[in-house]
Hints:
The structure is a homodimer.
Chain A: H1 4-13, E1 23-24, E2 30-31, E3 40-41, H2 44-58, H3 63-66, H4 72-80, E4 91-93, H5 97-111, E5 120-124, H6 129-141, E6 147-151, H7 157-160, E7 165-171, H8 183-192, E8 196-200, E9 219-222, E10 237-239, H9 242-245, H10 284-297, H11 302-323, E11 330-331, E12 343-347, H12 351-360, E13 363-364, E14 366-368, E15 372-376, H13 384-399
Amino acid sequence: MTTRNACLERDAQDPLAPLRAQFDLPEGVIYLDGNSLGARPRAALPRAQQVIAREWGHDLIRSWNTAGWFDLPKRLGNRLAPLIGARDGEVVVTDTTSVNLFKALAAAVQMQAGQPQRRVIITERSNFPTDIYMAEGLSRWLERGYRLHLIDDVAELAGAINQETAVVMLTHVNYRTGYQHDMRATSALAHAAGALIIWDLAHSAGAVPVDLHADGADLAVGCTYKYLNGGPGAPAFIWVPERHQAQFQQPLSGWWGHAAPFAMAPAFAPAEGIARALCGTQPIVSLALVECGLDIYDQTSMAALRAKSLALTDLFIALVEQRCAAHPLGLVTPREHARRGSQVSFTHPHGYAVMAALIARGVIGDYREPAIMRFGFTPLYTSFTDVWDAVDILCDILDKQAYDIHARRDAVT
Amino acid sequence: MTTRNACLERDAQDPLAPLRAQFDLPEGVIYLDGNSLGARPRAALPRAQQVIAREWGHDLIRSWNTAGWFDLPKRLGNRLAPLIGARDGEVVVTDTTSVNLFKALAAAVQMQAGQPQRRVIITERSNFPTDIYMAEGLSRWLERGYRLHLIDDVAELAGAINQETAVVMLTHVNYRTGYQHDMRATSALAHAAGALIIWDLAHSAGAVPVDLHADGADLAVGCTYKYLNGGPGAPAFIWVPERHQAQFQQPLSGWWGHAAPFAMAPAFAPAEGIARALCGTQPIVSLALVECGLDIYDQTSMAALRAKSLALTDLFIALVEQRCAAHPLGLVTPREHARRGSQVSFTHPHGYAVMAALIARGVIGDYREPAIMRFGFTPLYTSFTDVWDAVDILCDILDKQAYDIHARRDAVT
C-alpha cells in the first residue's frame, strides 16, 4: 500500500510535473474537473490583453488580415490535428460541438443518400444528450424520414449495425462513465456494413491518444474547453479527412465556407478543403485563447500524458477501494486501461451530497445523474499527491458522514 | 458652407461627445468602420481580466452558476432588447448571425408547413451573401423543395410576395448601400399575402431605431460586433416574439435549448420561451464582452444617437459633394433620412485604391465590390470634426491623385 510520501516521491520523479506551473490554479484546490472545464493557462491573460488592447483596440478592422483572425480556425485546427491523428488542412476550430455535429451528421447522411434503404442513425442512449438531440433535430427535418436507434449496451452495436444503417455516431469516451470505445474495431464494424462513423472526441482530445486515420474514422468533432484548456465555452472543432472533403456538403453554408467569401457573390460555392466546414464569423477573443492551451501540448506528447493519466487513475481507484472499502462506492469506469478515458466515476447513494462536501473542502469534481461522482484527471496539472489528498478528504467525509443529504442542487455543477 | 471651426463648435455643444472617452481609439485615426467592427470599449479589458483571472482561473467550474455564465445569453438578450423594440425574454445573444438565421428560417418554414403551396423564400440579390447562402443551404436540405426568389430592386417586392411565399427575409439596412427598408410597410406587405417576415438587423441594432413589435416583424437576427461594439466576432442574437415562441421549432436542437438541460434525458424537449433558440455551449469570454458595449447604450437613447447619426451623415454627404465635386464620386446611400442607415457609401472608379490611400492616412473606412467606398458613422465616438478632417483628407487624395491604382487587394478589408 502506498503512502503520501511515496506520492510526493513520484511527483518529484515526474517529468510532466513542471507543466503545472503554466496553469493558474487557486491555492487550496485540488481540481479534478478538467474534463468539464479545463484550468486556465497562465498565458491566457496576456494573450487576451494582446487581442483586446492591441489587435482589436489599436489595429481595429485591419486585424482580420494583420493578426490572422480570418485564418485562425484553420491555423488552430492544424495545431490541434497531431493530437488526434489528423493531418494539416483537415481540422477547423469553430462554432460549438453541437453545431459541428449537425454539420457532420448532415454531411454523412448526404454521402449515403445514394442508398435510400439506409435510414437509420445509431448511437447510444448513454451518449452525451446534446449529440442525441442534434441527431433528433436533423432527422426530424429530413423529410425522407430518418430514424434514430439508441442502443443500451456496447455489446448491442454489432447486431444493430446493418444494411439500413446510414451513420453510426458515438462519443469515444463516455462523459459519465469514462468508458472508452475501441475506435478501430467499431469503425471497422460500421464499414463492414457500409455505414459511416462519426466520433465525438469531447472527452478524448488531449485526454487519450487518438489516431483518427489509423482507426478508420470518417468524421469527428470535439471540444477545446475540457482537456485542451481553451477557456469556458471555447469554440469546438470538426475534422473532415481529405478523402471525404470533396463530398462533404452541409446545410450551414455560411460565407466563411464559401470558395470566395469576399467576392460577395449571390450564390453559394463551397470552398475547397476543410474551409467548407466553416459557417459564420467566429468569436475571436475566445478563439484566440484556444492557442494558449495547445501551446502547452507542444511541450510533451500524448504518450507521456497517457502514461501519467493511467497512473493517476490507477492510483485513485486503488486508494479509494483500499481506504473507503467500508462505504457503498461503486466503480463505474473500466479497470481495463484500453477501455478507460482520463476520468474515474464512482456511484454513491448520496453522490450529490458527497460531491458537494468534497467541493466545500476544495476537492472539485462533479456530479452527474444518477448518483455518479466524476473525477477528471489532467496529467498536465494533477499530481500524485493531489490524488492522495483527494482520497484522504473523501475518506474523511465518508467516515464522518460529513455531508448534507438535503444539499440544494444547483442548476449546473 | 460650414468650416472646421463650426464643426469644433458643434462638437462642443454635442451632448454625446463625452461618450467617446469610453472607447479606446488609437491616436491619429478617424475610425469610420464601426459598421464592420465596432471600436473597443475601455471596459472590455478589465472585464476580460475579471472573466479570465477570477471567474475562469479562480472560481473554475463553479462560475457556470456563481458568475451566471449559463444565463448570459438570456441576460444579455434582455439588455439588448430595448434597442430593437423587443421585450424581456424574447432575445438571446448566442452563436453567429448565420447560424441564428438558419434557426429563424427553419422555424418560419415550419410554421408555414400547413400551407404546402408556400414554397418560396424571397430575399434580395443584394442582401449580405451569407443570408442568401444560409437560405440556399436550408432549401437544398428540405426535400419538399423550397425555391429562393432573389429580387433585384425593392420595387419588385410588392409584386413578388404572393400566395406561394412562405417567408420574406430581408436585411433591414443594406451592408453595401446603407439603404434602410421601411420595416412596417414591408412587414405589412408580407402579412397581407400570408407570408412571414424575418429581419436581419446586422446593420441596424444600435445604429438606427428599431421597433420590431410596432413594425410587425415575425423573427429577427443580428450582430453585436458592429455598432454594438461587442468585440471581434462576438456572438450574435436572435429575437423570437412571445406570440411565436410556442410554435418556434428549429433543427439545431442542442442541450442549451432543452427544457431541462441538466436532467441529461435522452430525448429532446424544447425549453419554454426564448431558450429554445439556444443550441450549444457558448464562448463565454467573447460573450461577456458584449455587455461592455451595451453598458454604453444605457447612457443615451436611440433617438439621440439617431439625431446625431443623421447630422453626421448629412454633413459628410454635403462636404464630399461640395469639396470633391470635381471628382467622379457617386452617392449610393439614400439622401432621404427614413431610408438611410448609419453609413454613407460612394462609388469611385478607383474606389479600392482611394480607400487604401485613406487608410494609409488614418481614415479607416472600407471597400466593397463593386467600386464602393463605405464610411460608417458611429455617434458614440465619431465627432463632427472627424467628418471634416476625413473629407479634407479624401479631397487631398483625390486632388493630388495620391492613390495607387495597382494597390494589392487584401483578402479582407
